[in-house]
């Protein structure tokens, strides 16, 4: 059984689960989805539209008439992974359509793989469909192919990502996502709620709210009903009866208004915030073009915990940013000691084509970046282990993700799928199934994971 490693990458796509039903003669499309959960949602929307037009979805290259590769362009290493995936699809299938963030650089893709059939950018759904129609014309059967009752999902049926906006208004020097996906464009509340209601009606037990900047949701509306529409949206989502987990939340002052929702389990909004702090030293944050307010951030964390002591805080950080000194890095370690975040991911800085950070002076050597990453992860691992050890002897509700012969893999309210820890039940789990909510007694802790027994056993 896999135990979560200390080098979890938040930009890796969750494991996809493709539908396999197909009628004779039905045109079939394969999908390779790379990148973050936001890209996964784009893949789901593309597949939902294709299914509605009479296409089947193939889980392998051999069974597909063409393959759509949804790419990531966040880091140079992610771009390389995307090019590798495109190359593999070309070798295994030969008919490949490229979309996603890396699609914003079509010459970069066609320079490496001139045989691709088409290249489209991020969330260009109509262009992707046009490319599929050209490569594999639809052959709908009006007696069989109907609009699906629910969307095609690439995650287990008991949880789903819910994207509430596109784009970002920040101008972080290390990031090119705003150049790829544009400025903030929030979806209407009614559209978000309609999608969420359908998901819950279809059996989804957990809604994972995602965007580039979740706490900015609705602030792009000229006539918004409140200063911070995300608070009302979170409350409305929490009323649907599923867990609601908020990702990619910037620590704006109005985030405090959401903490009371998290403090009361009846509201359905989990006591969990995923906040991309990135660093703690004000000079590094300034070079990143991020708010340089690490001291006030500690005050915010203290304020959140005073209202909701059980809140789980996860974040990601960058080490080895250009000109980062040993003293600045030590400030980050000291800040981490004080903040005691529950879940932490870490990147070693990489240049990204088009990012302004590339031109900054004094780039940190790779060996120093690796050393700082090791020290950072050692510190965060110790904090995680201590926090989890404190949970031994407690009772908590968990959501079952997977049931195997030797154990059931579950998640607590403190754990998002793929990026956080797990709770394992290795006795009396035979009757469980994915999507079950059960209460467990926690009896063992590791560095990142817990073990427990079903309450009453």
UniProtKB/TrEMBL annotation:
One of its GO terms (cellular component) is cytosol. It is an enzyme of class 2 (transferase). Residues 389-456 form the TRAM domain. Its cofactor is [4Fe-4S] cluster. Binds 2 [4Fe-4S] clusters. One cluster is coordinated with 3 cysteines and an exchangeable S-adenosyl-L-methionine. Residues 27-137 form the MTTase N-terminal domain. Residues 154-386 form the Radical SAM core domain. [4Fe-4S] cluster 1 binds at residues 36, 72, 101. It is found in: Cytoplasm. It catalyses: L-aspartate(89)-[ribosomal protein uS12]-hydrogen + (sulfur carrier)-SH + AH2 + 2 S-adenosyl-L-methionine = 3-methylsulfanyl-L-aspartate(89)-[ribosomal protein uS12]-hydrogen + (sulfur carrier)-H + 5'-deoxyadenosine + L-methionine + A + S-adenosyl-L-homocysteine + 2 H(+). Gene3D superfamilies: Methylthiotransferase, N-terminal domain, Nucleic acid-binding proteins, tm_1862 like domain. Its EC number is 2.8.4.4. PROSITE patterns: MTTASE_N (PS51449), RADICAL_SAM (PS51918), TRAM (PS50926). The keyword Cytoplasm applies. InterPro entries: Elp3/MiaA/NifB-like_rSAM (IPR006638), Methylthiotransferase (IPR005839), Methylthiotransferase_N (IPR013848), Methylthiotransferase_N_sf (IPR038135), NA-bd_OB-fold (IPR012340), Ribosomal_uS12_MeSTrfase_RimO (IPR005840), rSAM (IPR007197), rSAM_horseshoe (IPR023404). Catalyzes the methylthiolation of an aspartic acid residue of ribosomal protein uS12. PANTHER family: RIBOSOMAL PROTEIN S12 METHYLTHIOTRANSFERASE RIMO, RIBOSOMAL PROTEIN US12 METHYLTHIOTRANSFERASE RIMO. Belongs to the methylthiotransferase family. RimO subfamily. HAMAP family: MTTase_RimO (MF_01865). This is Ribosomal protein uS12 methylthiotransferase RimO. It comes from Meridianimarinicoccus aquatilis.
